[in-house]
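User: Sequence in, structure out. Go.
Assistant: Echoing your sequence, followed by the structure tokens.
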Amino acid sequence: MTVKKSQQTSLVHTDYQAPAGFAAFPSAIHHASTVLFKNVAAMRSGDWKEKNAYTYGLHGTPTTFTLEARLAEIEDGRHCLLAPSGLAAIAMVDFALLKSGDDVLLPDNVYNPNRELGKWLSADFGVTARYYDPLIGAGIAALIQPNTKLIWTEAPGSVSMEVPDLPAICQAAHARGVLVALDNTWSAGLALRGFALGVDIIMQALTKYQSGGSDVLMGALITRDGALHERLSMAHMRLGMGVGADDAYLVLRGLPTLKMRFEAHDASARTVAAWLKTRPEISKVLHPAFQDCPGHEIWQRDFSGAGGLFSVLFDPSYAEARTDRFVDALQLFKIGYSWGGANSLVMPYRIAHMRQAWRDAGILVRFNVGLEDTVDLIADIEQALAAM
């Protein structure tokens, strides 16, 4: 029997159904907190962990499921979980895999918020966080303790650019039953095949190249092992790690041009970095594709590209006040964190304060080379060096 509806009820409940058969290139945006079930049996049979049904907006909609599937495909993985940021994804790994009394190893060049998270784990949660030389390779075996449960890697370090020997680290870790997580943001999942090298978990900050618009915060965890994915999924659920459908759509929209944009950033960054190597003000260019960057031979073996992010060290004769003046004088390079967008960025770092063992002299400045003309970018750096 059809229920007669008042005007107000008709505003809330409509009988209209759009005709089937619509098709278009963009993924549809599905907004939902509440998800509707056909009947009680459907409500009771759905398993949010298996993603074989829709149960609640936090656990996924067709929009987020589509993005997760495509990101897993890019990384040659099987499972993917989205998080509100790259740091949220890192925290999800730690809270899924570590408990009081456990130990985690992090590279000394780790993304600084990951370092701060390690300090918090040590101070308040009874998890010891220790830091290792990012170029340690197989030597990490000597640091693995009976309570070590996780090793974080970053390839390369996103400020000082050392490239770790991932296969050697993974082999040493797996021999002792320790999991390895990789921050693969620098390569956008395109230029480094982490699972082929032995890592267990790949973290991506989709805020960077996948978005490409400097307007989205999002992270992802990608795995191959089903049991490991379930452990991460439980942390995802318990921590309430949801992402909005509009943001997921923006990342989906960026994926078709991801490889072309990444390669354009790579070519431009190498051009700018090569020019900087000729400048007397610069003592070292820290770009993994250049021979004098620590771990270059590992980059040459394991990577197929480089993207737009690299750093330089100024000659030690230039004090911080002068390099700050250089950064302030730049016009096309804007001062800001992150990378992977169309706009070029610059950021000075007090690297000696960030690292336990840093021996190089000179102020470190990091460049993100965007999609502007390299002739204009080089001219901008040149005028800023003159102003310094």
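User: And one key feature?
Assistant: The mean pLDDT is 94.
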